């Protein structure tokens, strides 16, 4: 995801070269449109190609093809000379980003043991954060590159073109990995599924055990499947509808928590607060480093502390730090107080975003749906994410101009409070459960889930503030179920 941040630095140069770097409303909207072009493509076309690509080429083949698209598009961006040409090149990039962003988490979820599934699926977000950091570094590395005869804007062209390197690396190595065993089983290739599991587990006994559980899970899903359109069953089947609601909440909030207005426009934000161009790029690199480093603890906490608890802990803090960042613009520009407070607010926001709303949405969405509609569910989830990503990217310059930093950051702070309430009421915990056991988790009625969420408020207050000994009964007691039934029953019930 170098593209998310190389454009952050490159726009400082190409906006003026393309005639869209002024203060007019036209320039603000065109700059936002160019920056957000890949995510517009993801939302309206790219993500919806995921089921077709996965059926045609499998998980690995889809990853290879989409990385090939990304390589071509990133190289194309470096040779553009008008804003509309840049828009077209970046729109084409969405054909690489969309299906890949839906397929990689599915691939990781289907290949991972339940106990560490969260840690492995979140590698998508962890290394996305790493790519964001490297993108900021590329902005700094190429900042002082001077034009050569016949080439105008060589520095920003190198920034944009450098984003192809990770895609080339993935194309070279993706077929060294085994295909998803669940995809093989969906295609009726059980022998190939077992070979794949033998490479993914310590021994053949574990591979045989997990394949047996998968077979039973697929049999259980057959009972869920009504034989209707898969898109329709996402809404009409109660279990699927609850997974849809939960997935859409976390994907929507990954954008409306406000992180990508920082990822895409941090250089402009820092310049507006008083930084020079080079210092703004250096400060943006600092945000990228924090974004990656503070995602590392989530490798452990996502499967221990849990997906839901991470979100409930970090949403209020993100709201607080966005307010702090926006209000810091009321500090007089003279001196260093304002630039220091703006940087501090953005860095603190990155520290709490990275282990929470950063890794959880892709992990949660990849595991929430049953296998037979998983690619459709992830297509919708990623289309939602990239659609609102486009909305943020295209509206931020105008939002900032109209409501000033205080109002713009306050707007997204308010959405973080909404996210806290939505997670509390509608998001069941999924940590450490097999993909088949999650059928039971999402079979709990929405009314009971909301009631449980409301009970948690006084429970946590009594337990952690008043230090009382209180007990909150879980909606599903899996431990009791395993004691009463054998493993087979526990999985398929």
Structure in words:
By secondary structure, the protein is an all-alpha fold. It has 24 helices and no strands. Helix 13 crosses helix 20 (about 375-425) and helix 14 crosses helix 20 (about 375-425). The longest helix has about 55 residues, at about 375-425. The two termini are about 40 Å apart.
Topology, please?
Layout: H1 2-17, H2 25-44, H3 50-77, H4 83-111, H5 117-121, H6 123-141, H7 154-161, H8 165-173, H9 181-186, H10 190-200, H11 204-224, H12 230-236, H13 238-256, H14 259-273, H15 277-293, H16 298-304, H17 307-327, H18 337-353, H19 360-368, H20 374-426, H21 438-441, H22 446-465, H23 478-484, H24 487-492
Helix pairs in contact: 1-6, 1-7, 1-14, 2-4, 2-20, 3-4, 3-8, 4-19, 4-20, 6-15, 10-11, 12-13, 13-19, 13-20, 14-15, 14-18, 14-20, 15-18, 17-18, 17-20, 19-20
Based on CA inertia axes, which overall geometry fits?
globular
Q: Roughly what is the average pLDDT, rounded to an integer?
A: 90
Termini Cα gap: 40 Å
**Helix coverage percent of residues?**
over 70%
Secondary-structure-derived class: mainly alpha
- What's the order of the H and E elements? HHHHHHHHHHHHHHHHHHHHHHHH
Based on CA atoms alone, the radius of gyration comes out at 23 Å
Low-confidence stretches: 487-493
Q: What profile does the largest beta sheet have?
A: none
CATH superfamily of the largest domain: MFS general substrate transporter like domains
- Estimated share of beta-strand residues: under 5%
SS elements, strand count: 0
CATH architecture of the largest domain: Up-down Bundle
Annotated CATH topology of the largest domain: Growth Hormone, Chain: A
Overall number of structural domains:
2
CATH class type of the largest domain:
Mainly Alpha
Number of helices: 24
């Amino acid at each position: 995801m170098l593209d998310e941040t190389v454009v952050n630095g490159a726009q400082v140069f190409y906006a003026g070269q393309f005639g869209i770097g002024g203060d007019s409303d036209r320039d603000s909207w065109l700059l936002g449109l160019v920056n957000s072009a890949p995510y517009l493509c993801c939302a309206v076309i790219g993500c919806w190609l995921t089921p077709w690509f996965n059926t045609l080429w499998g998980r690995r083949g889809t990853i290879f093809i989409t990385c090939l698209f990304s390589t071509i598009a990133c190289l194309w961006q470096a040779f553009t000379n008008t804003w509309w040409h840049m828009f077209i090149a970046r729109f084409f990039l969405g054909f690489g980003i969309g299906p890949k962003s839906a397929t990689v988490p599915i691939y990781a979820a289907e290949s991972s043991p339940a106990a560490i599934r969260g840690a492995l699926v979140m590698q998508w977000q962890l290394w996305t954060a790493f790519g964001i950091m490297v993108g900021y570094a590329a902005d700094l590395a190429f900042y002082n590159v001077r034009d050569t005869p016949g080439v105008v804007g060589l520095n920003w062209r190198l920034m944009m073109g450098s984003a192809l390197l990770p895609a080339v690396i993935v194309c070279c190595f993706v077929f060294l990995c085994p295909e998803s065993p669940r995809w093989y089983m969906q295609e009726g290739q059980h022998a190939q599924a077992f070979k794949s599991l033998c490479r993914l587990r310590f021994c053949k006994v574990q591979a045989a055990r997990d394949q047996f559980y998968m077979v039973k899970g697929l049999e259980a899903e057959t009972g869920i499947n009504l034989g209707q359109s898969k898109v329709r069953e996402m809404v009409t089947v109660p279990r699927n509808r609850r997974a849809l609601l939960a997935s859409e909440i976390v994907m929507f909030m990954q954008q409306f928590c406000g992180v990508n207005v920082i990822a895409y426009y941090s250089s402009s934000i820092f310049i507006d607060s008083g930084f020079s161009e080079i210092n703004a790029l250096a400060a943006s690199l600092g945000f990228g480093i924090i974004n990656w480093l503070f995602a590392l603890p989530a490798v452990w906490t996502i499967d221990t502390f849990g997906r839901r608890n991470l979100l409930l802990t970090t949403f209020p803090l993100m709201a607080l730090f966005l307010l702090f960042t926006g209000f810091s613009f009321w500090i007089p520009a003279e001196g260093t107080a304002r630039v220091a407070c703006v940087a501090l607010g953005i860095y603190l926001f990155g520290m709490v975003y990275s282990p929470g709303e950063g890794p959880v949405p892709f992990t949660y969405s990849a595991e929430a749906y049953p296998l037979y509609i998983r690619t459709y569910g992830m297509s919708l989830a990623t289309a939602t994410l990239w659609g609102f990503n486009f909305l943020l990217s295209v509206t931020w310059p105008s939002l900032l101009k109209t409501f000033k930093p205080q109002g713009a950051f306050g707007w997204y702070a308010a959405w973080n409070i909404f996210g806290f309430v939505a997670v509390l009421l509608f998001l069941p915990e999924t940590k450490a459960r097999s993909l088949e056991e999650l059928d039971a988790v999402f079979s709990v009625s929405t009314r009971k889930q909301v009631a449980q969420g409301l009970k948690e408020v006084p429970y946590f207050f009594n337990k952690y503030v008043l230090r009382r000994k209180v007990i909150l009964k879980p909606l599903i007691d899996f431990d009791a179920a395993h004691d009463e039934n054998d493993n087979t029953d526990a999985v398929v019930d």
